[in-house]
Amino acid sequence: MTTTVTADRQASVAAQAVELRKVYGSGQTAVTALAGVSATFPAGELTGIMGPSGSGKSTLMHCLAGLDTFTSGEVYIGGDALSTMSDKRLTELRRDRVGFVFQQYNLLPTLTAEENITLPLAIAGRKPDPAWFDAVVGAVRLGDRLKHRPNELSGGQQQRLACARALITRPAVVFADEPTGNLDSHSSAEVLDFLRHSVSDLGQTVVMVTHEPTAAAYSDRVLFLADGLIVDELLAPTAESVLDRMKVLDLAAYGGEDAAPRPPSPAQVPAAGV
Amino acid sequence: MLRATVKSLLARKLRLLLSALAIVLGVAFVAGAFVLTDSLGRTFDNLFTTVSKNIAVEVRGTVQSDLGSGEQGGPGSDNTRRNVPASVLDKIRGVDGVAEAQPSVFGNAVVVGTDGKPVSNNGAPNIGANWVDSTVLTQQRIEAGGHPPRAPDEIALDPAYAERSGHHVGDTVTVLTTTGQHQYRVVGIVRYADGKSSLGGETYVLFTTATAQKVLDTPGVYTDIQVAAADGVSQQELRDRVATALPGGVEAITGQQFADEQASDVKAGLGFFNTFLLVFAGVALFVGAFIIFNTFSILIAQRTRELALMRALGASRRQVNRSVLFESLVVGVVASAVGLLAGIGVAIGLRAAFNAIGAEFPPGPTLVLPRTVIAAFAVGILVTMAAALIPARRAARIAPVAAMRDAATPDRPMVRQTVGGALALGVGATGMALGLAGNGLGIWGNGLPVLGIGTALAFLGIALLSPLISRPVSRAVGSLFARRLPGRLGRQNAMRNPRRTASTAAALMIGLALVSAVGVLGASLKESIQTVVNGALGADFVLESQVSGISEQTMAALRQQRGVGQVDGLRFDSVAVNGDHTGAIAIDPAAVGQTVALQQRQGSVAGLSADSVLVSDKVVTDKGWHVGDRLDFAFRDGTTAPRTIAGTYKDNELVGNYVLDQSAAGHFHDGKLYGVALVKVAPGADHAQVRQALDTAIKPYPNVEMRDRGEFVAEAAGQIDTAVRILSALLALSVLIAVLGIINTLALSVLERTRELGLLRAVGMSRRQVKRMVRVESVVIAIFGGLLGLVVGGAIGVALQRALVNQGVTELRFPFGQLFGYLVLAAVAGVAAAWLPARRASRLNVLNAIATE
After folding, report:
1. Cβ–Cβ of A95/B408 closer than 8 Å?
2. Cys bridge to B758: A221, B407, B718, B850, which one at CB 3.0-4.6 A?
3. How far apart, in whole angstroms, are the C-alpha atoms of residue B151 and residue B511?
4. Rounded to an integer, what distance in angstroms lies between the CA atom of residue B816 and that of residue B814?
5. CA–CA separation, B809 vs B33, rounded Å?
6. What is the CA radius of gyration of chain B?
7. First and final CA of chain B: distance in angstroms?
């Protein structure tokens, strides 16, 4: 089933997927990773994407970010359609308009923290805006570690460093793929705090793929994927409401087709889980 | 364990390909050298046996070992042999069992071409001989349409020579011999019975026997006599019988011995050639060892987890060590096999190439002796396994717990390597010094093996020490490219593993150091010649002769020309001084200070007279002589005479060690002819005009070549340049292997840094920028290697020059332009080496690269 989820805000759209399909292989061995996903990511929001393994959430993010090609449909980053872009333009897009935080191996070991933060700018041959640089560095609280190498920083510090790098170009949207996957709870909280802060106070847009309900709870909105389709949406999530929703979806997945619930309309979504 | 090893080897065979290729090239060189020289040796064996197949006994003069004991030996041989008196021929014909006996007269003869100059033959011998009238004792036959020479003015030519000189049967030609030049009529074309023009490129001018004796300066004697046996008489039997009929001073050997002797002369020459080639093959393999070492080191580092897992699962250290060594064994065996085949192909190809450029090697088998096969495998396997020894040990030391965590391997301390490197360098440099001084350490006859081993050790030492300067040098070199980020990252990548960078660069250093040393030595040699000539030559023109000497007639013609100031002739010959065999020249004392410049040291060089001699400084110092001492001279005509030392002069390569006055020339062999004529232009005369006049004057004398000072030096310089070029070409293989090593290291490093590359691409680095990053890393490594090579090569060049100062390399010169050119070449090699790894890096699938485990 295809569902279109729209926000009725008047804010601009940072990124958008329209009827996105991704099929690997062909004929007998064809695997459909995305079966026609449409989603809009308004500017100034932290959106979470969740789903069981194999749901296509990472694939969705890779397609949205210009890291992977898609079979049909369209992706817009701030109004530019990705399907028309050459590899060169996609590379430039990733450099200037998109930020990334991966689960691990975000940083170049030969560069200092400061050099890692300004890496996308250095690739473009530009210098950072000093005020923005200070703001970002201050927000991740790494001001005293700028001259250190990544191997001299803790896991949490490395991830915060990666977040700072993701923001340095003031991108249209930041994609974070399981950013807290390798971190302990304290470091996770720090990273998520920063992502939240960047959205609420610094005006960024973040799309975060995660499997942890506590992480998802930092979002303004959570999209649930299953079998390559968006099957649910949750506004103003809490850890518990997310867990509950996931339980329902899991049962549906394992319980067979007739047990699948119809996606609820926004009006019906309870404000807080029971 | 074995199975696991083999499987993991197969999985990574691509990674081992380039390093195996390095060994293949080195082994191919070794195998090719052996196959080529063995094949040529066998070819000449067959050749000489065929040519003299009917000769049962060869009769010739005995070797003259004492100086001045009478008759001269035949030209064209190293040992001077006596000639055979004509009377011996009849005696031999009377011996029972002799079917036939024919005399042979051998010498040098050159046809003068239609342009008035001797027809050149690319250095092969120009044989003048008599026509041997026998179908049994010679394999040469006259072509139909002609007849053998019967009259004194008739000659026969070999077809290739006739063609080159543009003559046919019926033409009149001028032939130049040691006794002068005469005109003859070509009456026949002579070839070997199998149709070939010559055995190996030599030319033939055949006279009648009487003419040959006259013209080749052997009146009344023969060079040798060939004897055929009657049926049923063996060679040895006939030889013994003939020997009893011979007078003193004449000997007889069997035909087979004769053929063997000739073949072994050729094979001795081939042996030198073989050793020469093997030295360069050795250099190539030495560099190949570096490549193997690097590859295995990198692969072991990349396989840390895999190997740690083996250890965790219970494999012992020894098993891990053995498994790595086994991998190197497999690589060695495969590479040796391929190299052997490649070498055989190279030998076949080289032979074809030589023939194409006119070397005319006779056809023959391609000989792959067991020795070649064993050598190929032994060398290939040994080098590969030796290079893998240390990486294997390192693999065995991996702790099992490294399988569980992703710990970064801490930098091993450099102390041991530094000490080892300093030691190797010290011992190596000492070895080089000893070798250059000719010290064979009591094991070898000369210093060359010591020099070779010392050089290898020194290179090893420098390679071990080079990581110490790897970072600062990389930083400095990389600063050329560090303006923008990709270049900066490339430089950093070159800096981040100093050992690996230094090791890769060291391979390039070896080749470039040797090429630079050769260049420095060549330039120094050229400069020295220039200095020597300027210091020793007072003349403006140097005239040298081919085949025969410069006659008094020619000298008179020179003196007659307008503008000519002074003309002096030099004559050279072997003499014995106080019993020691050496050489001396005879000149007119008036030449001293005019055409011949001697820098006086002691006594008076102007004081040369009929009873005095001038001696060079170094000989006087060596022997402890003084001015006024008496020296006993013995000449080739048997006379002796005492001379007192009138003065000494600074060492002079042109003039030699002993200068006598012209009366001594009366005792010289061919004393009436001058070896060299020197012409000095009269003050105020026009140089160009005089030159023209002299050119006209020597036209009737085709054996004379004239050069002015500049041309004289340029000719020698040209020969040195050619030698440098050949040596550099032989070393090029080593440089090529080193470049393969750079490609290898880069490719493996790119593989290692997949995640980083993925990250960079994800964050927006373009493909072009990624390529640039890899290219900069490659160029930094290459320039590092180049700089090291130039410095080390320069040092070796200086050492060589110092060691050879007494052998004529008096000046030291650095060919800066050439050396800079080599550095540029290194940089270009770096760019070229990066092409493939950079492409692969830029084509990386970003998603796969950033996928988490």
Report:
1. no
2. B850
3. 61
4. 5
5. 31
6. 34
7. 26
**Alpha-carbon gap, residue A215 to A55, rounded angstroms:** 18
Is the ipTM of this structure higher than 0.85? no
Residue B69 has pLDDT above 50, yes or no: no
Q: Cα–Cα distance between B255 and B252 in angstroms, integer?
A: 9
Q: Per the structure block, which two tokens stand in for B25?
A: 């090239």
A124 CB within 8 Å of a chain B CB: yes
Using the structure block, give the residue that is written with the tokens 């899991």.
A250
Tokens of B201: 């490129």
Give the list of residues 6+ apart from residue B405 with CB closer than 8 angstroms, or none.
Answer: none
Q: Which chain A residue is nearest to residue B757, measuring alpha carbons?
A: A108
- Phi, psi angle pair for A131, to nearest 5°: -65, -45
Q: Which residues of chain B does A92 touch, with a Cβ-Cβ cutoff of 8 Å?
A: 764, 766
Distances (CA, A) of B396 to B310, B323, B324: 10, 9, 9
- Nearest CA to CA, how far is A74 from chain B (Å)? 20
Residue with tokens 């006379």: B639
For B585, the enclosing helix (H) or strand (E) is strand B580-587
Q: Is B847 on the interface with A (CB under 8 A)?
A: yes
CB < 8 Å to B762, chain A = 67, 94, 100, 102
Question: Is A85 an 8 Å CB contact of chain B?
Answer: no
How many CB pairs below 8 Å do chains A and B form together? 70
Q: Classify the phi-psi angles of B166: left when phi > 0, otherwise alpha if psi is within -120 to 50, otherwise beta.
A: left
How far is the C-alpha of A67 from the C-alpha of B121, rounded, in Å? 71
C-alpha angle B646-B650-B655 in degrees, rounded to nearest 5: 80
Separation CA A255–CA A80 (nearest Å): 41
DSSP H or E segment with residue B187: strand B180-192
User: Among residues of chain B, what percentage have pLDDT more than 70?
Assistant: 95
A151 near B CB under 8 A: yes
Contact A108 B484 (CB under 8 A): no
Please give the full DSSP string across A232-244, using - where no structure is assigned: EEEES--HHHHHH
Q: Which of B493, B763, B847 sits opposite A110 (nearest CB)?
A: B493
Chain A residues within 8 A of B769 when measuring between CB atoms:
123
> Does the pLDDT value for residue A268 go beyond 60?
no
List CB contacts of A56: < 8 A, sequence separation 6 or more. A22, A33, A34, A35, A37, A225, A227, A228, A229
Q: B763 in contact with A at a CB cutoff of 8 Å?
A: yes
Inter-chain contact A120–B759, Cβ cutoff 8 Å? Answer: no
Residue B432, phi then psi, degrees to nearest 5 = -60, -45
Report how far Cα B597 is from the mean position of its chain's Cα atoms.
33
Q: CB of A127 within 8 Å of any CB in chain B?
A: no
SS3 B788: helix
Residue pLDDT, tens place only, A9-55 = 345 889 999 999 999 888 888 888 999 999 999 999 999 999 888 78
Mean pLDDT for B659-679 is 83
> What does DSSP assign to residue B81?
B
Indicate the residue type of B342: A
Q: Which of A105, A112, A169, A177 to mutate to test the interface with B (most CBs of B within 10 A)?
A: A105
DSSP-derived secondary structure for A168-198 = TT--SEEEEESTTTTS-HHHHHHHHHHHHHH
Q: What percent of the residues of chain A are helix, what percent strand, and what percent coil, each to the nearest 5?
A: 40, 25, 40
Cβ count near B385 (within 10 Å): 19
* pLDDT tens track for B132-156: 988 888 888 998 888 999 999 999 9
CA distance to partner chain A, nearest, from residue B492 (Å): 7
Residue from B318, B342, B86 nearest B218 by CA: B86
Angle at B839 between CA B838 and CA B843, to 5 degrees: 115
Tokens 């050492």 sit at which residue? B799
Distance (Å, whole) CA B150 – CA B210: 10
